Give the backbone structure.
Amino acid sequence: MKKIIIFCLLFILNCTVEASKPTLDIALAEYTKGHTKKAFRIMREACDLGEERACLTLSGAYKGGKGLPKDNTKVRLYNKKALDLYAQKCNKDNTDSCAMASNLYYVGYGTQNFFKSNEYSKKACNWGRMESCVKLASSYALGKGARQDYEKANVYYKKACDEGEISGCVSLGSNYMLGNGVKKNKSKAKDIFGKACDAGYQSGCDYYSILNH
């Protein structure tokens, strides 16, 4: 009987701790109530406990001066904390974290590294995140973190397009229209733009119309 009572007490204690654990959602709820200082205190605690969204929100708050004084040092500090957490959590079952790591390396705020951005885009792409394939393709097309290579860009644009990521179709169609990395082929470009148009992309419709005349 005593063991059962101890177990129940431990269970209740654990639930109490979990319920009081600082999170970004709790911080934002306090912020909407006008409890700014309390909100950012909870946010810092949540960041320290490994909630990457809290770190990123703090970085943005310090950058924009929203509720906190502008402080570029702290922008970089919390941006780096968020980046490290996203990078650690990047795996085939969590491609959102891979994509966020890629974005943070791309945008910077003290961490800009196009090569690392491409590394995480490629991981996410290989694990089936098609918008990351488009981002990687764009890096090859622009020469960001890699030698400019339209042929490689088209490989990833096509992969994304074939899997239903229509932004990849628009870019692939453009390259067929202009002859970037492929032999210029307006008929093929028109077909690809038609697919994008049918999927609801106005730019696909616009280019289709141009090639149809």
Summary: The chain has a mean pLDDT of 90. The radius of gyration is 23 Å. The chain is about 75% helix and 0% strand. The CA atoms of residues 179 and 185 lie 7 Å apart.
